Amino acid sequence: MERLIEHEWNLAPAAARALQSELAARVRLEPAPPDIATIAGVDTGFEDGGATARAAVVLMNWPALTVVEHHIAREPTRMPYVPGLLSFRELPVVLSALESLTTEPDLVLCDGQGIAHPRRLGIAAHLGVITGLATIGVGKSRLVGEHDMPGEEKGARVPLFHEGERIGTVLRSRTRVRPLYVSPGNRLDVANAADWVLACCTRYRLPEPIRAADRLASNR
User: Fold this and answer.
1) pLDDT digits over 33-53, tens only?
2) Is the Cα torsion angle 163, 110, 191, 198 positive or negative in sign?
3) Against a cut of 0.85, is the pTM above it?
4) What's the fold here for domain 13-218?
């Protein structure tokens, strides 16, 4: 997997926010890539009291959603936790996990935000800009924005707005279960990001690639 952009990760908060704004201008919101055949899910966590960052990646075939390969990567944590700057803390180890794959994914689902972020650069958008991959952020909770509540049935959705701009979709991925906050990261638009996430949700709240990555991370 090629990295199109290299930058330092352990930055002062002001410098990191400035870099987010610069990178956000490179996000491409467009129709989804044609002929998607593989989808990866990534999940991150921390060990040793936060000193070690851990990322799990699971690559699945589409549309069967069967596992092709999976990997776990661990690296020393480079940046302390700062609200709104989580991608600087998590992305280095996510990149290492993705680079372990023998097949580059056509689409990556990230546990976190895409453009539904104060500076429009959550972890999925940051990853997409750095690698050129098509990415989607799948948040379990809202980071920013306002919305009505979607209907209770699976597939119900409402737009998520922030400062007058639509930044994502609040999606009911399972009937009468808390909705997901879906936003494009790169190379998708708001509408087809939600469509892809819903298509990857089978019996559970989370899309299968992210759910598998979460299970893998939890079992090690």
Assistant:
1) 999 999 999 999 999 999 999
2) negative
3) yes
4) archaeoglobus fulgidus dsm 4304 fold (3.30.2170)
